Amino acid sequence: MPVEELEDRVIITDPIDPTNTATILKYGATVISWKNQSQEKLWLSEGAHLDGSKPVRGGIPLVFPVFGKQSDETHPTFKLPQHGFVRNSTWEFLGQTSENPITVQFGLGKENVDPEAYKLWGEGKYDVTLILTVSLTKDKLVTSIDVENTGKDAFEFNWLFHTYFKIPDITDTLVNNLIDHQVVDKVLGEEYVEKAPAIGFHEEFDRVYKDVHEDKTLQIIELGKVLVNVDRENLPDAVVWNPWINKSAGMADFTPKDGWKNMLCVEPGHVSSMVDLKPGAKWTGSQILTLGGEIKIQANIY
Ligand SMILES: O=P(O)(O)OC[C@H]1O[C@@H](O)[C@H](O)[C@@H](O)[C@@H]1O
């Protein structure tokens, strides 16, 4: 069956090769598994809560309308909890929209969000409709988000696909094509220009790369082999995160405790600035994940 709807999740299967599947939890519309030839490509904590009691630690949680915790106390998103309210709301399964590539959609409106949480966003005056489209082919997983302002007031938001990749060993892993981009280093509390042609990992890592041109493919490379290519449409920023030893130890839902060795978040988003959406307007952003292929080196020519 190419689309199987269970009570709490939807499983999609590539009609050409049934060893390619994706599982989307209705809670948060979180993609919790992407298997290619039966091999899992996303990292999911063994301690992740999948029962709707907490945002999922792993997979592809969705971040909206605020990334992190807003520090500007005058902004209408400032009261919201870290990463907003869509990762912890239950989305509606809207059904299948295409057979090949197998594609499904999930929707979220004000009525699906806990009213107490919604009130924290601009005193609850905004109206928004979000549609998540998930599409799976042989070697690709595409997630696209449509944000529509269905209310009378303009609003501003961040968007982020908080993607956790499963990797064999973080110390053997590089991410390329971020050279010469402005970066906010949240660990050092500094902003500078990235000078490494490929970044490596040997301690806690939490950086927001700003305005990375869309033509840049971010490749996760392990021992000279491309694991996955991360492409983006309308998502100018990329967060790269690994909590390492101490941060992982402090997260109750992060298990096994040495799981940081086998995960890396590369997160396409619109987070260093906010999207301003007028009443009636619509905005779309996509994350395109493609497995394998050649190493591609791209300098900052923009
Ligand atoms: O624990 P949370 O809310 O899921 O956030 C996880 C991480 O998400 C990343 O996107 C942030 O850059 C990190 O600073 C943060 O720690």
TrEMBL record:
<feature type="binding site">
    <location>
        <position position="57"/>
    </location>
    <ligand>
        <name>substrate</name>
    </ligand>
</feature>
<comment type="similarity">
    <text>Belongs to the glucose-6-phosphate 1-epimerase family.</text>
</comment>
<dbReference type="GO" id="GO:0030246">
    <property type="term" value="F:carbohydrate binding"/>
</dbReference>
<dbReference type="InterPro" id="IPR008183">
    <property type="entry name" value="Aldose_1/G6P_1-epimerase"/>
</dbReference>
<dbReference type="Pfam" id="PF01263">
    <property type="entry name" value="Aldose_epim"/>
</dbReference>
<keyword id="KW-0413">Isomerase</keyword>
<dbReference type="InterPro" id="IPR011013">
    <property type="entry name" value="Gal_mutarotase_sf_dom"/>
</dbReference>
<dbReference type="GO" id="GO:0005737">
    <property type="term" value="C:cytoplasm"/>
</dbReference>
<dbReference type="GO" id="GO:0047938">
    <property type="term" value="F:glucose-6-phosphate 1-epimerase activity"/>
</dbReference>
<feature type="active site">
    <location>
        <position position="267"/>
    </location>
</feature>
<dbReference type="InterPro" id="IPR025532">
    <property type="entry name" value="G6P_1-epimerase"/>
</dbReference>
<feature type="binding site">
    <location>
        <position position="82"/>
    </location>
    <ligand>
        <name>substrate</name>
    </ligand>
</feature>
<comment type="function">
    <text>Catalyzes the interconversion between the alpha and beta anomers from at least three hexose 6-phosphate sugars (Glc6P, Gal6P, and Man6P).</text>
</comment>
<dbReference type="InterPro" id="IPR014718">
    <property type="entry name" value="GH-type_carb-bd"/>
</dbReference>
<protein>
    <recommendedName>
        <fullName>Glucose-6-phosphate 1-epimerase</fullName>
        <ecNumber>5.1.3.15</ecNumber>
    </recommendedName>
</protein>
<feature type="active site">
    <location>
        <position position="162"/>
    </location>
</feature>
<dbReference type="GO" id="GO:0005975">
    <property type="term" value="P:carbohydrate metabolic process"/>
</dbReference>
<feature type="binding site">
    <location>
        <position position="87"/>
    </location>
    <ligand>
        <name>substrate</name>
    </ligand>
</feature>
